[in-house]
Every structure is written in structure tokens, then in C-alpha cells.
Design a protein that fits this description.
The protein is built from 26 helices and four strands. The protein is mainly alpha-helical. A two-stranded antiparallel sheet has the order 1-2. Strands 3-4 form a two-stranded antiparallel sheet. Strand 1 and strand 2 form a beta hairpin. The longest helix has 34 residues.
């Protein structure tokens, strides 16, 4: 379909698209991967590589998207900011609000790959997807597959893949909402997850019957406001200028100085120190690139976002790139605050330990967090200071004072626990938790509604009727929600891993046929099916092999693993320990330890599950191209 056939549509030239994609690749991959070199230069206290990856790249992607939108043209409407606000909230979700900050605090530079991937995906959507996807008169991705490829199999396979990926993405939102409910109510996690299922069901059913989602626009505005206020309060508590995006450059050095001083005071050991700004210490640069690519392609091709915000039913053709660019701007404002939060939280934690805390007199910030399972002290999570002190007394050389290495945080709940420990006022902390809960419910509703709308459009000719539910939609919604709640409760993966691996499945299976369908007229149904199945099979085999059957996968493909001999020997020892375990308790502990070690060694070339896109996406493109060339004859020359 040509832009000339749709009045007011954007008309980017091939040169503009290629230039924008080149700039996008430079900002998203080349410069962040050169961070080790760029860190040799410091600007206003910031190591340049760290600052560029945390904030500079996000700003550059916003500029690239807006320049593309301006040059691509298109009829300008009067949409305003409400649509992008809704779009932003659904793009951030629980992983963006709760998960990324905790992971940055735990991993430092390497975790910046996740927010960078989100911004990179929105920029790619503005450049590559939005100008052409909106030309099709559909309201979901299933409608696009029907209109573009026809037939039964492309849209049905697309829906099957989408259902599996949505389960992973929804599980991440359920996990985030459950943690927020736990913080507000004091319930255990199982009860909190059950309440999430009820709340999401009511939210989805109510909105499906009432139609519309306009009130959700205010949610992201509140989210940014609360998070920004938290950042300002943290700067004031630590005696800094209330300019968090500026003063965290000095805080980076303070983190290093404080943690080194804790060693001198015997309140930390070297193993507990994790540099914030040093790149590729926790994950390799290849994994970093793989995570960014998985997030970027997954976000750019995420069916719920495309259908709810970039389809012809949601936005005027000329407004589509502009809406994505506005959304990217709003999202970048939020994402730029994640690194400051992580740095200020690390400073607050170091100052807290430095103040000299007796474990037997642990304050409420520690006991409350431990009771919720957000942090363990000497391997024990209990609300009783006596229990914590007894656990620490069993540690060799422990003198009763809380040490940095005694604390082990759950990355999913780091935002909540770190805010408490860093001294955020109670009312503001409750506002933060409430905002996180609402954000998770909004994103979860979008995932449910987006998948069911795609299923309805695949079964009917044309967009599904609003304010109307059928038995199939209700049954599918319940199954999807139950599967997601079960996965959120039982999966050992954190919520960022759940979300990134769901996006990796989208990137490997759905993104290739969408792009080839938009830009290659010869590409048809057979090529789409080949790309869908190949991408999903390759990425799915790796992701689910590592997560569900790591021992079996290592036995079959151990030759491809980069695990050192010591890790393999440990795996053998743990297998022997499991076989020799006598009672059920020891057997369960041995199984957990064996599973964790198997996940660590069951890799191909050291790649994390989400980074499987590095070989899955090229496989999908090659399969789609090859099948098309072999089965679809060239159009005769005029």
C-alpha cells in the first residue's frame, strides 16, 4: 500500500529512512558499546560513557525521531498530549517503573541496556513502523496480517505466538502489581497475586463494557510527578542541590568513596562492592547489545502498542509518527530519572550502613522490608530483629553490626525497599507504591485488551465492535490471566527478565514479517508463516530451554556453552548432592541450587535468554526471504 493512496499520510523518502536508521544504530549500539573508552572523559563529574548510555542516548533518540517526523511530513491534526500520555504509560509498564531502577542499582552500567532498549524501540517504531502500519485500515496486528497476507495460517500463528509472549509480559505486570499490593496491605505474595487477578479482571471487564480509555492519560502524568518528587526528596535528604539530573554526577563518586570507606570500617568486603559506571562487568558487551536489540525490536513490533495507538482506528495517518515521537519524549523524561534514582539509592544504603546499625536493633525500614521478602539479612527474611541477629551470629567473624554484604535485595522490590531505607517520607513512599500499582494495572489491562481485540478482529471481518464481549473473549481473557498469575508466582526469573524475554519472542517472530510485509510487496503469506515459525522456534527453544529445562539443555548443547570448568564441576557436584539427599527439605534445597547452577551454565556462547534475538532475528528474516524467493514468482515487467 502506498502513502499516496492515503490522504494526509507521512511520506518519508528512502534516503531519509536510511539516514535515520543509521543515526539510530549509532546512538543505540555503537556509542554505548564504546562506553569503556568514553568513560576516560569526564564532563561535570560524569564519566561520559555512563552518562551517554543513561541519558545522552535517550535525548539523541528523541531528536532523531522528531527530525524524522518533521522531514517525513504528513497532515498535522489536533490530537494533543492525551493519546501520547496513555501510550507512554502502556510502554513503561511495571518493568520500566519497578524493575529497571532496581536492576541498575544491582548491576550498574550493564542494566542501562533495558531503558535504552525501550527508548530505542520507540524511536524505531517512529522511523520504520508507524508511517506505513497506519496506512492499513485495521485496528490490531491480526487485522494487519489478514489485510496484508490473507489466508488462515498467518493470522492464527501470529495470535498463537502473541498469546505466549503476552503471558510473559502480563506476568511481569502481575508481579509488579502484586508487590505494590503487598506493600500497601501487608499480605503475603500469594494473596497479593490473587488480588491482582481480581483487580485486573474487574478493570478489563469494566473498561471493555464501558469502552474508551481516556482517564488513563492522567496515570503517566502522576507517575512522572511522583517519581520526580522522590528524586528531589532523595537529593535533599542527602544534602544535595534539588537538581537530581545534575547532582547525581557527584553522587556517582560519592557511591565509590562511601563503599570504599565501609571496607576500612569493616562494614563491607570487596565482594559486596559493585561499580555503578564501569561497563560490562556483570554482562558482556555482546549480551548488552542483545538485550538492547531484543527490547528495541520487541517494543517496535509490540502488537498491543501498534493496535491501540498506531493503527488507523487509533490515530490519523499523518499523526502516527508524531504520536510516537511525543510518546518517546515523555518516556525519555521518565527513563532519564532511573540512573539518578539508582545512584541516590546506593548512596542512601551506604550511608545507612555507615551510621552503625546493630542487627539486634534493626530499624523498621529493614524489618518491614525483610518481612515482605524484599531483603534478606544474613540469608534470613524476618520481621524480628532477634531472628536477624541470630542468623548473623552464625556468620563467621560477624560482630553484630549490620554490614553491606549482609543485605541481599530482591531486584523486583528494590525501588520500594531502597526508598524506605534511604529515608523517603511515609506519605511520599505510599504515593510511590500506589502509582506503581496503578501503572501495573493500566499496562496489564492494555495487554489483555490488546490480545483479545486482535483475536476478535481475526475472527470477524473488520475491527471488533466496542462495548461488546463474547464468551470466547471472556474465556481467553481468564485463561491468559490465570497463566500469567501462575507464572508470576512460580517463576524464579525477575520481572525484568519476564518482560524482556516476552519482548524477545515478539522481536524474533513478529517483527520480521511485519517489517518485510510493510516494505516488500512480493513478500506473502508463505514467507510470513516461515518467518513467524522460524523466529519463534529458535528464540523459544533457547528461552524456554534455559528457563524450564536447563539440565536437559546443557546435556544436549553443552558444547556451545562458555561456562568455565569450575562451573561445570560445581554442576556435577550439585547433581551428586541431589542424588544423595535423604530428607525432603535437603532434597528441595539441592534441587533449587542445582537449577540455579544449571541456568548459569546452560547457555550458547554465554548469551542470556533475551539476547537470543542475535541469532533468532536473522534466522527469521532469512527464512522469510528464502521461502518468498522460492515460492512467489516475480511480477512481470510492465
Amino acid at each position: 500500500m502506498s502513502a499516496d493512496e492515503v490522504a494526509g499520510a507521512s511520506r518519508p523518502t528512502r534516503r531519509l529512512t536510511l539516514f535515520s536508521l543509521s543515526a539510530w544504530a549509532l546512538v543505540s549500539f555503537a556509542l554505548p558499546l564504546a562506553a569503556l573508552t568514553l568513560n576516560a572523559v569526564k564532563v561535570a563529574g560524569f564519566p561520559l560513557g555512563f552518562w551517554f548510555t543513561a541519558q545522552g542516548a535517550l535525548v539523541a533518540l528523541v531528536v532523531i525521531a522528531w527530525l524524522f517526523t518533521w522531514r517525513a511530513g504528513g497532515e498535522r491534526g489536533r490530537e494533543g498530549v492525551l493519546g501520547p500520555l496513555v501510550f507512554s504509560g502502556e510502554a513503561i509498564a511495571s518493568a520500566g517503573f519497578i524493575g529497571y531502577a532496581g536492576l541498575i542499582a544491582a548491576l550498574g552500567f550493564d542494566a542501562l541496556s533495558y531503558p535504552l532498549g525501550v527508548a530505542s524501540g520507540l524511536a524505531l517504531m517512529a522511523i520504520l513502523i508507524a508511517p506505513r502500519f497506519v496506512l492499513y485500515p485495521v485496528s490490531t496486528l491480526a487485522g494487519y496480517f489478514t489485510a496484508r497476507f490473507g489466508g488462515f495460517w498467518p493470522r492464527r500463528i501470529c495470535l498463537a505466538v502473541l498469546g505466549i509472549a503476552t503471558t510473559l509480559l502480563l506476568a511481569a505486570d502481575v508481579r509488579g502489581a502484586g508487590l505494590a499490593i503487598q506493600a500497601l496491605s501487608g499480605l503475603d505474595r500469594a494473596a497479593s497475586f490473587a488480588l491482582v487477578a481480581v483487580a485486573l479482571s474487574m478493570c478489563w471487564l469494566g473498561l471493555a463494557l464501558a469502552g474508551g480509555r481516556r482517564p488513563f492519560g492522567i496515570v503517566f502524568a502522576i507517575l512522572i510527578g511522583v517519581f520526580s518528587l522522590i528524586l528531589v526528596v532523595l537529593t535533599l535528604v542527602q544534602g544535595r542541590l534539588p537538581l537530581p539530573y545534575w547532582s547525581y554526577g557527584i553522587a556517582l563518586q560519592d557511591v565509590a568513596n562511601l563503599e570504599i570507606s565501609l571496607i576500612g570500617q569493616k562494614l563491607a568486603d570487596v565482594s559486596a562492592l559493585k561499580p555503578m559506571a564501569s561497563p560490562f562487568l556483570q554482562i558482556s558487551n555482546l549480551n548488552f547489545a542483545g538485550v538492547v536489540l531484543a527490547m528495541a525490536l520487541g517494543i517496535a513490533g509490540l502488537p498491543q502498542l501498534l493496535g491501540r495507538h498506531i493503527s488507523r482506528a487509533a490515530v490519523a495517518p499523518g499523526e502516527a509518527p508524531r504520536r510516537v515521537s511525543m510518546t518517546l519524549t515523555l518516556v525519555a523524561v521518565f527513563l532519564c530519572g532511573l540512573a539518578p534514582f539508582a545512584v541516590f539509592a546506593r548512596v542512601g544504603l551506604a550511608e545507612f550502613v555507615q551510621s552503625g546499625i546493630k542487627v539486634a536493633e534493626a530499624p523498621a525500614a529493614i524489618t518491614q522490608s525483610a518481612a515482605n521478602g524484599w531483603v534478606s539479612v544474613c540469608g534470613v527474611a524476618s520481621s524480628s530483629p532477634a531472628d536477624l541477629a541470630a542468623a548473623c551470629a552464625k556468620v563467621g567473624g560477624h560482630k553484630g553490626m549490620l554490614r553491606l554484604q549482609d543485605l541481599r535485595f530482591d531486584n523486583d522490590a528494590y525501588v520500594f525497599a531502597a526508598s524506605l531505607i534511604a529515608g523517603v517520607p511515609d506519605m511520599l513512599w505510599l504515593a510511590l507504591v500506589s502509582a506503581a500499582l496503578v501503572a501495573a494495572l493500566v499496562a496489564g489491562n492494555a495487554l489483555l485488551a490488546g490480545f483479545l481485540a486482535a483475536d476478535a478482529e481475526a475472527r470477524r471481518s473488520g475491527p471488533p465492535a466496542r462495548r461488546k464481549l463474547d464468551l470466547r473473549s471472556v474465556a481467553l481473557g481468564i485463561l491468559l490471566l490465570l497463566g500469567s498469575v501462575t507464572l508470576a508466582a512460580l517463576s524464579p526469573a525477575d520481572l525484568v527478565a519476564l518482560a524482556s524475554e516476552g519482548l524477545a519472542l515478539i522481536a524474533a517472530s513478529i517483527f520480521p514479517p511485519v517489517v518485510m510485509g510493510l516494505f516488500w510487496r512480493r513478500f506473502g503469506a508463505r514467507g510470513a508463516v516461515a518467518a513467524l515459525l522460524t523466529g519463534f522456534a529458535v528464540a523459544g527453544a533457547y528461552i524456554f530451554g534455559v528457563r524450564l529445562a536447563p539440565l536437559w539443555m546443557f546435556d544436549l548443547t553443552g558444547a556451545l556453552s562458555n561456562a568455565p570448568p569450575s562451573a561445570v564441576r560445581k554442576l556435577v557436584d550439585l547433581r551428586a548432592a541431589l542424588e544423595g539427599a535423604s530428607d525432603s527439605g535437603a532434597r528441595m534445597q539441592a534441587q533449587m541450587a542445582l537449577y540455579e547452577q544449571a541456568v548459569n551454565v546452560a547457555n550458547w556462547w554465554g548469551l542470556r535468554p533475551a539476547a537470543s534475538v542475535l541469532f533468532a532475528v536473522p534466522s527469521a528474516f532469512c527464512a522469510g526471504i528464502l521461502v518468498t524467493l522460492l515460492t512467489v514468482p516475480r511480477a512481470p515487467q510492465a
